[in-house]
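Quick review question:
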């Protein structure tokens, strides 16, 4: 078995979840009360950007998936959307801040995966790997 990496919460990372394996550390992550309850409008905005991107990059009726082959320039994209922070994205008509947050969330998710803090997100997919 490979070397286990420590998660940012001080426990050994559980490879089946982004939550720490240590139950005490898990309780220190108030996902609902410290994230969902704080930022419901922001998270709704991220969900709307997800749907827009899914509809744009996939055939009609495709279930929501994070197609990792489409773009990998999260940092550049965050910067572009931050430059127009108070405006609307010209393609989607959604606030640029929502697009910036979506891209930042994508960056953070990939960072967690690349550091071994969790497995790929359930909705992640790489079509180029699936066709090989």
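Suggested answer, residue by residue:
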């Amino acid at each position: 078995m490979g070397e286990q990496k420590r998660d940012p919460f001080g426990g050994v990372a559980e490879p089946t979840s982004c939550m720490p394996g240590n139950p005490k550390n898990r309780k220190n992550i108030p996902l609902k009360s410290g994230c969902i309850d704080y930022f419901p409008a922001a998270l709704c905005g991220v969900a709307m950007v997800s749907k827009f991107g899914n509809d744009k990059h996939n055939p009609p009726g495709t279930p929501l998936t994070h197609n990792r082959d489409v773009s990998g320039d999260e940092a550049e994209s965050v910067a572009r959307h931050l430059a127009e922070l108070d405006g609307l994205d010209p393609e989607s008509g959604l606030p640029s801040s929502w697009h910036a947050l979506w891209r930042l969330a994508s960056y953070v998710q990939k960072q967690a995966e690349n550091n071994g803090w969790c497995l790929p997100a359930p909705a992640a997919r790489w079509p180029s790997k699936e066709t090989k």
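Why it works: The radius of gyration is 16 Å. The mean pLDDT is 84.
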